[in-house]
Amino acid sequence: MKRHLWAIAGFILLLALASLACAVPGTGPSAPPSTPTPMGDTLILTIPAYGYNMAPGDVVPGTGLQFIDRQGDAFEVSINGQHALKRAGDSFFWSGVLAPGVFANFNLRLTTSLFGSLPVAGTVELIVLNPDPVEELGVPDSSGRYHYSNIVADYSVPVGYQVPGTTAVFQGIEERGQGGQTTKLARFSGMSGYPYLALGDSFVWTGRVRENVYLAYNLRVTSLNEDSIRLTGTAELWADSPR
Q: CB 22: neighbour CB atoms within 10 A?
């Protein structure tokens, strides 16, 4: 865990400086419109703030990004076997197959170094091909060689559609209660347990999306109407790859 702290802190600082530079007086951030989340044969998951602290010889797990050694104020690195000299703030990009059925884009940058280490930070995009979700009540201890947390999820799911990467299908709204104590509840099918969620309720789902990939969602209902439901929160992914 310590290995990631300096890289994440440096990346957050860069984000803060960038936001100050781009701020316009008198304006503020506005929530993006709730548009339906596309469905298809891929599941795209994004980690907006991934960090890894590298010692000489280390490789960013699952990638072709390696830190060779420090050279004065520069860092000798290897990207897919090709050597390069990089300095703080330079890009450190890799894309390729992370595990069977999982493609990844690591859009990283070198951040401030400390004691000869090399913190790198940036965004990571994980693309699961042809997901075939199966709900399971937990994730096996030996579920994956690679583990990714802090995945940000924000889905707008129309009536009759699955929550991406899950077996849960949003079936519409039902109104419960009498008089002035009525409540609108979203009804789901395709998942175990109580199938109703109110605005603000948590949506938790764990399962296998490929034979070698597990996914766990921790979401909340942030908007709800007759046409769609919006679920926002985080996810974790475990992927196994032949050694």
A: 7
For residue 9, the SS3 value is helix
Which string of b and e fits 165-174 if b means at least 16 CB within 10 Å?
bbbbbbeebe
pTM here? 0.80
101-158, pLDDT tens digit by residue? 999 999 999 998 776 789 999 999 999 999 999 999 888 776 678 999 999 999 999 9
* Tokens matching residue 217: 């969602």
| φ and ψ at residue 62, rounded to 5 degrees | 85, 0
As beta bridge partners, residue 70 has: 75
Structure-block tokens of residue 173: 């709204």
CB 63 within 8 A of CB 77: no
Q: Which amino acid is at 165?
A: G
Q: Token pair for residue 42? A: 């891929």
Contact 216, 208 (CB under 8 A): no
Task: Report which listed range, 11-20, 178-187, 189-198, is most confident.
Answer: 189-198
